[in-house]
Amino acid sequence: MFAWKGETLQEYWWCTERSLDWGPSGGPDLIVDDGGDATMLIHEGVKAEEEFAKSGKLPDPTSTDNAEFHIVLSIIKEGLQSDPLMYHKMKERLVGVSEETTTCVKRLYQMQVNSSLLFPIRGNHRRRR
């Protein structure tokens, strides 16, 4: 993961996307996430790619009042214009995700139950005392 003290939200999300996209040579096969950001970026990216393939419609960052999600949609939109299957390729490479936070682990298990999780949850997720 790339990061530095004082980075902006835009820089943070750029770093997150860069950590997942290694160019034509591939990318990670397992995500070790803390807060679900990388997992969320891939899921939103796959959703946007499917919509783009169906309708030709790009994500609209102005469709949200959430400043952080605005950045996420902007990054996905840029990626779609250069590689309309970038997130699908990421999804296909991934064998699983390991998550640190209890809240996100619960969210991932819920996604698994409703069949919206794109790759399995890996490893032991123990409750902290």
Topology summary:
Layout: H1 9-20, E1 30-33, H2 37-55, H3 67-82, H4 86-93, E2 96-99, H5 102-113
Parallel strand pairs: 1-2
**β-sheet strand percentage:** 5-15%
Overall pLDDT metric: 90
State the shape: globular
Rg over alpha carbons: 15 Å
Count all strands and give the number. Answer: 2
- What does the main sheet amount to? 2 strands, parallel
Please give a structural write-up:
This protein is mainly α and 129 residues long. The protein is built from 5 helices and 2 strands. It has helices spanning 9-20, 37-55, 67-82, 86-93, 102-113; strands at 30-33, 96-99. It has a two-stranded parallel ribbon. It starts with 8 loop residues before the first helix and ends in a 16-residue tail after the last helix.
Brief descriptors of the model:
single chain, 129 residues, two-stranded parallel ribbon, 2 strands, 5 helices, mainly alpha
Report a brief summary of the structure:
The protein is mainly α. The chain is built from five helices and two strands. Strands 1-2 form a two-stranded parallel sheet.
